[in-house]
Write a structure and sequence with these properties.
Elements lengths: L4 E3 L2 E3 L5 E6 L6 E7 L2 H19 L3 H17 L1 H12 L3 H22 L5 E4 L5 E9 L2 E5 L7 H12 L3 E5 L5 H13 L7 E3 L4 H10 L5 E5 L2 H13 L3 E5 L4 E5 L5 H13 L9 E7 L3 H13 L19 H16 L3 E4 L18 E4 L6 H4 L6 E7 L2 H9 L3 E2 L1 E5 L3 H10 L4 E4 L15 E2 L12 H5 E9 L12
Parallel strand pairs: 7-8, 7-10, 8-9, 10-11, 12-13, 12-18, 13-16, 15-16, 18-19
Antiparallel strand pairs: 1-2, 3-4, 5-6, 6-21, 14-15, 17-20
Bound molecules: 2-aminohexanedioic acid.
2-aminohexanedioic acid (UN1) binds next to loops.
Length: 491
Amino acid sequence: MKLAHYIAGAFYADETEKYLDVINPATSDTIAQVPMATIHTLDVAISAAEKGQKEWANIPAPKRSDYLLEIGVKLKEKKEFLAEVLTKEMGKVIEEARGEIQEGIDMAFYMAGEGRRLLGETTPSELNDKFAMSVRTPVGIIGLITPWNFPIGVPLLKALPAIVSGNAIVWKPASETPIIAYEMAKIFDEVGLPQGVVNVVFGSGTDIGTEIVQNPHIGVISFTGSTSTGRKVAELGGYHLKKVSLELGGKNAVIVMDDADLDLAVEGIIWSAFGTAGQRCTACSRVIVHKDIEEALQQKLLSEMEKLTIGDGLDERNKVGPVINMEALYKIHSYVELAQLDGATLLTGGHILEGGDYDLGCYYAPTLFKDVRPDARLAQEEIFGPVVGLIRVGSLEEAIEVNNNVSYGLSSSIYTKDVNTVFRAQRDLDTGIVYVNAGTTGAEVHLPFGGTKGTGNGHRDSGVSALDLYTEVKSIYIDFSGKLQRAQIDN
Ligand code: UN1
C-alpha cells in the first residue's frame, strides 16, 4: 500500500518523492510505503491551511464542535479496524491499541463540549460605564509534530483542541507510524471538514519538521518526542518567536511504602512498566521501594513477570509486544549492559529475545534490576523499553527526594494506605501527574497532561489548558460613557 499526503481536502501524491518502507515490528514485514514530502509539498499544505482557516474561523465554535462529534462517532465505528492498524505498525498489544483509539474518542467528545464553551472572562472595569472582557481567538495555523509510540492518541490530543479553537493544522506524523495517520486523514475527510482545515504531510524530521518549525505562516508548534529534538524545536521556534509546546521524556517512578498493599502495587508496576513494552513517556522505569518490604515486593514482581506473555500484539494472549525497531532494541540493551557495569544486580531479563517467532521481530525480555543507585544512568535517563530498576529507600522523605532527583517530571505514583503519607506525597512529588495507589500511566483526557522540569516547557496537552496553547487571548474594553476616561488616572 502506497500512502499519500492529505492536503486541501484530498489525498495528494507526488511520484517524484522518495518513499520509505513501513515495517511491522512484530514480524519485520513491509506493510506500506510512506512518501517523504518535499518542501514544495509542505508549502502546498501550508497555503491550503491558510485558505481553509479563514473560512473555518468564521464558523461558530459550537458548530465546529459538531465535526468533532462526528469524528468521535467515526472513531467508534472503526475502533476495531484502527486498533489492528495501530498494532501492526506500532507493535503495542491489541487491547492497548483499542485503549489508544478510545483516548481519541474521549478527546473528540470532550473537546466538542469545550467548543460550546471556549470560555473567556468578564470582569468589572475600574471605571464607570465601561465593560471589560477577554475572548479567545484562533492563532491561525498550528504545526503538529507527533511520535510513533502514541501515533493517534497524542495527535488527537493536539489536533482536536487546535481545530475546535478555529485553527487549521499541518500535521507531520512520525515516519515509523504513518498508516494510522493516513486512516485518521480519511476520517477527517469523511466528516467533511472544510478543505485545508486538516493537512497531513509525511516527511523527515530534519527537512519537513524543521521547515514546519521555522515557516512564518505557522504560529504555534506542538511537539511530542525526544528531549534532544525538543530542544532543537524550542531553539528554532523561539528564534522565530513562536509559541512552542513540548512534551518530552519521563523517568517515572512508583514509590512503594512499607504499609502498601503489595499485590496491588505489583499489578500497577507490571502494567505501567511493561505495558506498551515500556514505550510510553509515562512508563514506570524506577520502583522506589521501602527497605522493609523490598524483598517481598521483589519476589512478587518476579513471579508476576514470569507470567508475562510476549509476542505479536495481534494475538490477544500476549501482554507485551515488540519494541519499535532494531535501533530501539540495541539502545535498550546498551542501557542494560551499562547498569551492570554501574553495579546493579540483574534479577531477570536483560537480553534480546531470540528463537522462533522472536527472530522475526524486535522483542526485549522484561527486565528487572535491584541495587540501582539513584544517580546511576539506568535511574536517570529515559530508556523507553521494558526495563525497571529497584531503588531502596528508608523513608517517605528519601523516596520523594529520589523521585524528584531526575531531570524529568512527568508522572509519579505512590502506594500506601496512610492518608497523611498520601497528602504529603501529592504535595511534594515534583511531577505534572501524581497517582495514588495506581501506576504511572493512564492519564485521562479532561485533565492537563504534561510535566515539570525537562519533561517540557510549561505547556499542557489535554484538558481545558490545551486551549491556552491554541488560542490568543484578546482583552476588550468597551467604554460607553461618551467621554474620555483615563484608566489609572480618572478613577
Ligand atoms: C505518551 O506516552 O506519549 O497517560 C502518552 C498515558 C496515556 C498517554 C501517554 N494516556 O499513559
